Amino acid sequence: MRVYIAGPYTKGDAALHIRRMIMVAERIVEAGHTPFIPLLYHLWHLMSPHEYGYWMTLDHAWIEACDVLLWLDGESTGTQEDVGIAEHLGVAVYSEEEFFTWIAGRKTGDSKTLDK
């Protein structure tokens, strides 16, 4: 399953937000799935800066390609926009806790844990 990880970036410490996404991505891989970390665009932006809309266009294309959007808590206008796009496209949206509870349920055969 392809999992888009959405969460805060510009409010607070960007490095801590990126680290958090990477740690969540590690758990997703351990569960046998494929994460997408949009905040890794940070490095690209440092070398080749673009306007906000450029990055959001790329993000939205990835959301469409994913099966699930995992929503990390924290204040973020971009994350709210990502969630809205996912819902509009019919991509399942889970909080971090909901997602890992759902994954654990799938492994134990309790797939009804969170069917959205």
TrEMBL record:
This is DUF4406 domain-containing protein. Gene3D superfamilies: Hypothetical protein PA1492. It comes from marine sediment metagenome. The lineage of its organism: unclassified sequences, metagenomes, ecological metagenomes. Pfam families: DUF4406.
